[in-house]
Design the sequence.
């Protein structure tokens, strides 16, 4: 295993799975997981950061594998009491998960940055990889729909991804500064790979790519950029990516995801089920990389992570 920094861009569930695989390769704090904050929102006076929490809980082995978000062995007495008191209960906050939101909200109110509070919490949980927000500035994903704009969690949770999507807007993105360690790692001559995890391209990865200076820094980076398709045989493993693609007039295919990322990519990982799209990916000037991309077990997560880094080694200039 060559040593050197590896950057992974991650959203929630799918990204967190590959992030966990990468974190088991002995990279230590050479692994930098840059996480989307566009899903973040203030709710009941709490600063909620779903993608940071999905990655943190996954790496700490605390995540609920069925739901894909929040903690395992969770209790819902807070939610029950909230309901009794007539509180806003469309967004489920588990009793143990609540500690994360209360601690983070208190730290941010004290003036700590999201980077700082995330570093304290991940260290406390024994996570050796670096987990950072994509920026410490406020960015909020708004989902444009046929009936007007929706805050992300209203679209995703309250309205169960049912509204028809017409586009996205990342409020605050123009003034947002990419997180410092992220930009430093992008210009590190020892950088081994930039991995775009199989998260939702539109609402998990695009916010990171839309940060001023990030695309240019990725293009100039010495390391290959490899994305893992979140679409397998026309379906998203989890979440609304395929539905969004259909509503945006795109085919819900792995190839369409490769086209969406375009010239940014050196390699694109397809599942065996999409082998037939490999030539079309190659025609884009992107190296098609075919393997099993569906991650059910920890073994799957580690194997896919190894595959991606081996491909990066091969694609390195
Ligand atoms: N997703 C849901 O579908 N329903 C929920 O009630 C819900 C609560 C929740 C609480 C904390 C948290 O960190 C995530 C939560 N999520 C919930 C998932 C969240 O909406 C998504 O993980 C991301 O925003 C998209 O990846």
Sequence:
């Amino acid at each position: 295993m060559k040593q050197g920094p590896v950057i992974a861009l991650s959203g929630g569930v799918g990204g967190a799975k590959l992030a966990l695989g990468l974190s088991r390769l002995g990279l230590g704090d050479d692994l930098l997981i840059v996480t989307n904050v566009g899903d973040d929102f203030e709710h009941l006076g709490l600063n909620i950061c779903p993608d940071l929490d999905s990655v943190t809980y996954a790496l700490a082995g605390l995540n609920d594998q069925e739901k894909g978000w929040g903690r395992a062995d969770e209790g819902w007495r807070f939610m029950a009491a909230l309901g009794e008191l007539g509180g806003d209960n469309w967004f489920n906050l588990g009793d143990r998960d609540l500690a994360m939101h209360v601690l983070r909200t208190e730290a941010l109110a004290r003036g700590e940055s999201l980077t700082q509070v995330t570093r304290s919490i991940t260290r406390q949980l024994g996570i050796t990889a670096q987990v950072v927000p994509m920026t410490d500035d406020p960015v909020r994903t708004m989902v444009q729909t046929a009936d007007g704009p929706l805050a992300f969690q209203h679209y995703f949770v309250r309205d169960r991804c049912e509204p028809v999507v017409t586009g996205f807007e990342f409020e605050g993105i123009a003034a947002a500064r990419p997180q410092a360690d992220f930009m430093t790692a992008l210009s590190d001559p020892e950088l081994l790979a930039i991995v775009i995890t199989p998260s939702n391209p539109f609402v998990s990865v695009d916010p990171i790519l839309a940060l001023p200076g990030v695309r240019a820094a990725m293009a100039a980076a010495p390391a290959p950029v490899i994305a893992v398709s979140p679409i397998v045989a026309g379906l998203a493993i989890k979440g609304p990516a395929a539905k969004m693609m259909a509503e945006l007039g795109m085919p819900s295919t792995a190839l369409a995801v490769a086209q969406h990322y375009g010239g940014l990519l050196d390699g694109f990982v397809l599942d065996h089920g999409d082998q037939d799209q490999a030539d079309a990916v190659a025609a884009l000037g992107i190296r098609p990389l075919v393997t099993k991309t569906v991650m059910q077990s920890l073994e799957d997560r580690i194997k896919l992570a190894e595959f991606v880094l081996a491909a990066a080694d091969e694609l390195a200039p």
Observations:
- Residues 11-12, 39, 48, 50-51, 53-54, 69-70, 91-93, 97, 153, 156-157 surround FO1 (CB under 6 Å).
- The chain has 13 helices and 14 strands.
- The mean pLDDT is 97.
